[in-house]
């Protein structure tokens, strides 16, 4: 156990994932702005500290890719960030990889298009873990003289008030240690610790071993989970998101299979014979479209502003009660604006796809009510090809109400569907989808900012519904696995390793020891299953966590939760929960009081992040805005005064410091 001088300020950061590391960096970067006459001790605690954090562990196979482009990810604060703290520039993930001779995604299809260190490549998750380790080293090396970082490869099992000074001092208990670390401030940056199994999941976990099988609950794909599934064993994978694609890698390339690129551009798969038979299905039955790859077209031809639903109208609807007809009109308005943005790009980038000019189309479109028969008719009559006509309702659920008589028929349809989406994404001719994503994102960001504004909100369920709808469009259009992985999926389907089951896949139990699966898309098929892998995203939970620290804090009312999304009445799953915090990350206790000494940070908090995921370079990332804001609030709360800007000193990656003081006073100090 590290001991420190009695007079030191002591801060604990629980979790050394991207948020925990960034919080540490922001504390270090901001500290020179404060007149501190004592030393600051920061304890960074995470059982996966030495290997890049839980998600980014360096011991993962290289085939497990991130879905962010390597050139877009950076943990450093650049001048695009509108934050109060100093800029401290540094390399993006791809720049760091290039200067350290580290390989980015290896793929023949990419090699013919890009240089080896292009920022348009993807990186493996383990490489990201390495970058994070280097980042931590950089932060420690360049920490201000009066700050010392102590690292602990341990789990925190409790944080409780110290009997010496309750309210100002906490005891942070580490697994396997007999004495706590006494801290003045604690930041929880735990990511998403696994939730308890639902009743349905527990039932499967009990049932499957009786027939020699296993059940793998939601969570990142790991080699140990994959090892439970033997060659040739029939395995149901529930969910077609990124975890499903990770499992594909672990069951194929990792087991010796080889993907080959044919001269005709087609990819084939040569099995090793050690693959299981994978049956895959999900609610909608199709994977998300591949994450946008801006190489084809980096700029849109046309930029539109919302016509039906302006920012002012959103605020108005947010604050005042509205009747159902007005709400429906509002939703249709957003719909209309999204369609307008899509057609603006489609027609401007390729006028031949519409029988009239963009100017005329836009005029006629906007003069009609959104969603009206007049608008539908205009689209039908002027947009020449059916595939260019946008249908937002059916786009995300192409298998809804569709069924196939036999399994091979569905496989052919699925391969065509995945190839079509992938080719569209790679083609310059479909920048209209990029325009649609930009427009959806703009609305989504506006909604998120309003829900963070702590204003009284009317029409809560309605807004959550619209937000959920926008999020699902974003996920569907831009949340899928990188395109080379989609091509591999097609090859795996052709080789028979993967069999698609379509939408509405469900498990049935015809006898005590047997499990079968069936689906709405293939009503006549039923397949015997040995293993079930739940590859859906583990839902964030506070009240149903398996993490001892969370259980303790929640049980004592020292953290509280808020429902993130309205739970549908039909759903058997517990809803998504977030840790309740203020805008500055301070924990809100179950009695509604605000802690001035404990903070929580990350996507699992009630402060809504507009762009979830890792911080993006040159994009005024709200991830970094959050870590900067919380670091400054924490330093303010220690009761130490701010220096005047001229008194600044600091250590920087690029030798460049910019001070942009956001002001704001401090509250309770430390005696
Ligand atoms: C498989 C997978 C792939 C992803 N890929 C991408 C991607 O490509 N791009 C992207 O933008 N986002 C991706 N994400 C989302 C990703 O989770 C976030 O971008 C990012 O990792 C969140 O950072 P975090 O610090 O909040 O959480 P995490 O990265 O999860 O870090 C939290 C850390 O807290 C530690 N911890 C938890 N509880 C305790 C405790 N009691 N004591 C001590 N330590 C504790 C954990 O060990 C962990 O290391 C991915 C997520 C998953 C699950």
- DSSP E strands, number: 23
Shape: globular
Average residue-wise pLDDT: 89
By CATH, the topology of the largest domain is FAD/NAD(P)-binding domain
Unreliable spans are 646-671
What's the level 1 CATH class of the largest domain?
Alpha Beta
Tally of distinct domains: 3
Q: How far do the termini sit from each other?
A: 24 Å
List ligands, each type once.
flavin-adenine dinucleotide
The CATH fourth-level homologous superfamily of the largest domain: FAD/NAD(P)-binding domain
CATH architectural grouping of the largest domain: 3-Layer(bba) Sandwich
Helix percent band: 25-40%
| Rg for CA atoms | 26 Å
Secondary structure layout plus pairing:
Elements lengths: L8 E6 L3 H13 L9 E6 L19 E5 L23 H7 L8 H4 L10 E3 H17 L5 E6 L3 E6 L8 E5 L6 E3 L1 E4 L10 H9 L7 E2 L6 H5 L6 E5 L3 H10 L6 E4 L5 E4 L6 E6 L28 H9 L4 H26 L8 H10 L5 H10 L9 H4 L11 H20 L4 H22 L7 H19 L4 H13 L2 E6 L2 E6 L2 E5 L8 E2 L2 E4 L13 H8 L5 E3 L13 E3 L6 E3 L5 E7 L21 H16 L34
Parallel strand pairs: 1-2, 1-9, 2-5, 9-23, 10-19, 11-14, 11-19, 14-15
Antiparallel strand pairs: 3-4, 6-7, 7-8, 12-13, 16-17, 17-18, 20-21, 22-23
Bound molecules: flavin-adenine dinucleotide (FAD).
